[in-house]
Amino acid sequence: MSEPTTASAEAEASTEPDFLTASDLHAGYGQARVLQGLDFSVARGEVCAILGPNGAGKTTTLRALCGMVRGRGSVTLDGTQLLGRSPEQAARLGVAHVPEGRGTFNELTVEENLRIGAHLRTAHWRRGRAERAAVAADLERIYGYFPKLRQRSRQAAGSLSGGEQQMLAIGRALMLRPSLLLLDEPSLGLAPLVTRELFEIVRAVNEEERTTVIVVEQNAQLALDIAHRAHVLEAGRLVLSGPADRIREDGQVAEVYLGVSVRTGTGG
Amino acid sequence: MSTIVATLATDRARRPRAALTALLAVAVAVGAPFYFAPFQVFQLTMVLVYAVALAGLNLLVGFGGQISLGHGAFFAAGAYTAAVMLDRYDTGHLATLPVAAAGCFLLGLGFGVPALRLRGLYLALVTLSFAVFLPPLLKRLEPVTGGSMGLTVDKLQPPAWSGLAEDQWMYFVALTVAAVALLLARNLLRSRAGRALLAVRDNESAAEVMGVRLSLHKTLAFAWSALFAGVSGCVYTWVIGYVSPDSFSFVLSITLLAGLVVGGLASLYGPLLGAAFVMYVPSWAQDISDAAPGVVFGLLIIVVMFVAPTGLAGLVGRLRSLAARRPTRTTPAPDRTPESAPDTDATSASESSAPPTPADPAPADAEPVGAPPRTEKE
Amino acid sequence: MSTVTELLQQVVEGVGSGAVYASLALALVLIHRFTGIVNFAQGELAMISTYVAWQLVASGMSFWLALPVTLAVSFAGGMLIERLVIRPVQNAPELTMVIVTVGLFIFVNAMAGLIWSFTVKDFPQPFPDGGIDLAGVRVDWSTLGIIAVVAVVMGLLYLLFQHTSVGLVMRAVACNPASARLSGIRVGRVLMLGWGLAATVGAVSGVLVAPLLFLEPNMMGGVLIYAFAAATLGGFDSPVGAVVGGLLVGVAETLAGAYVDVIGADLKVGVPLVTILAVLLVRPQGLFGRAAVERA
After folding, report:
1. Please, which residues have CB within 8 angstroms of residue C67's CB and are 6 or more apart in sequence?
2. What average pLDDT does range A257-266 have in this prediction?
3. Complex ipTM, two decimals?
4. Of A265, C130, C227, C240, which one has the fewest beta carbons inside 10 Å?
5. pTM, two decimal places
């Protein structure tokens, strides 16, 4: 729960030791080896985009970070080894994962979904009591980011639109007060306008809470708009890394590896 | 290199050896009734009778991936069909077989159509309810079924030309029926319908995409398996000469499933082993206590599901393949929830190859379990 | 006695037995929601719990003290079974899990026979004899007692699930275990809790029905079939449906036995079979189930 209080973390990002470091990360499903040894790092407080064509291993990378798939190699978060942990253990270390397809609890109400997000903070019977006020305040904060969720707080999550469900999923992840927020294809199946709104909120969250964010996206243009840094994957290997501005401007490279011209990307 | 040569050598040696094994098995099967005492021959006959029912159940559970907890009821239906025909119409034994088979097939269709439109679990519920309902129904239909007293009918008698004793003749009849049933089960699985069935078991949605009509094939599999149970019940009546509602309580259904699981799901020879279990374990364990057969069966089922989901037959196959090549570790199965299904981003192709059935099922055309293990020469 | 009072009399009896079915059906639905399977051993677990209660009472404990002890033992037993028997096959195909519960059914049944023998035992009737007269309809204290106990259990479950954080976590796990895990919930513990709860609710049905049926290892076999019908009728994913389904099946059974001559007392056990088949043909998701029934 100890957020870094150092001012202008963004400016110091280059000098500060990396918050998350992956080295020689391998992962896959059964016989299918998807990640073939990734090395990358993410600085504290930055938004990092992971880009690449279909099947490059973007989703698998996120799943290896949060413990949904078993990885080999090493991934450290603030010096702590992440690999070999279950998703619930990863959550305890402050990793909040918003899975592809959102993973909302459809039969629960919006507010119940958000409260589940704060489960780890309230589960402890003694400390939970003290946390309760803080959780209530966080609920208000989330509703501040996503006013639509407040309107629908008593509705079943399953009755929300796709965009609202994605907001709810992100809201639930934030209720954990994560130090690392993983977003898997947040734009999937959403209208361009809704996606744009969502990304603006992610940017706001990152700026206000200083939460480190790793976002996996097909829509490179959108992701690069809010990212500080980007890693491009292809066939389970890292092919390009750098500040988001550089990657955006390097149109040719992007075209080769991302399969689309970032300048004509959807949205906007 | 040497392994390749060895493999080639065993492949070449395989056919004659398999033929030899088959010949040996036939010799043992034919010789048995002349070697054993009449009571033991009777027990072997019952093993063969149960094996027919289990072969049918295996079509459904082992290959179709569905559960029936009411096969004892189809067994009873077949048994009563034979008994009533013999008792009231004096039709002769042979005529009862096709009627019992057809009747149970239709009964299976009747229950399968509603039960198999949906998830497999409903078939288990429907069949169990049927198994519980049948005994009181048989008691009620007293004018036809003889009520609680049951019916006593003539056993199968050996024809004069054979020169065989009653127990020997019945053994050979049961052997013939069992052999035909096992061969039929094998051919059913190799037919178009059988391959569709396996496809359904291994990946239902993929099979559906490929145009396999799920509910039709599942229902047909169920009807076929009911037919096998009916035939088995019919031969039971020929052998025992007596039927009563209490012989066919739902415990029989549970015991049949237990026998099959222990003998080996999805193996062609599992039913034979399972039938031996159904026949011998209760009679041995009963000496200890009334409850002992249940304790043994219950524990065995759970243990088998934990360590060898393909039962005894599969275990032999697995041990053999373990010895032959490097062990294939079963990868941890993915969670059942959509989020953790394999990455759509990366491995949607690999998903369809993961069978949702007990790991490492014995190949459909596995060798007889009784066959001596092939030795690999290095 | 007029035909109307007689009908009402039968309905009251039906509600009494329906409450027992509802309780076991609720246990089945709980397991189905948490584990995704039908637990064929549910009735046998209730039977074992009833033997525990019997043993306690036989050793001199008062019934109303033995009941909470029995429920606590059942809760622990249910958790233990999840951990030891179900967890190892949790990621296996549904078929494997269901077969394991069938194995458990056989094993538990036989163990009860081994420990307590197969001879029937008289289970003490916890409620006083006699009853009250409501406009000519006689309601036994025992019937009222059964209905009251089941109602209290339902009420407690409702409070647990809707108004406590543990209940919220349990609903979240039942709804989406993978997401629950991502929120830091220890799903394994919650599943143990679910099985413990189900065993407790099932135990209530066993203890309530035992004075009427006589206690023996096969006591719950018949009740289980009715509970299946109740859960199918109400919808396998709906706790409310289980209760309503249980009451309906209980009333249907009593009325069929009393008014349909062909059925009579001996063929009443056909009622669940007909119920299940009818529901599957007409409304397969059940009265309260979600429209989209899984096709697995």
Report:
1. C53, C126, C207
2. 50
3. 0.88
4. C130
5. 0.83
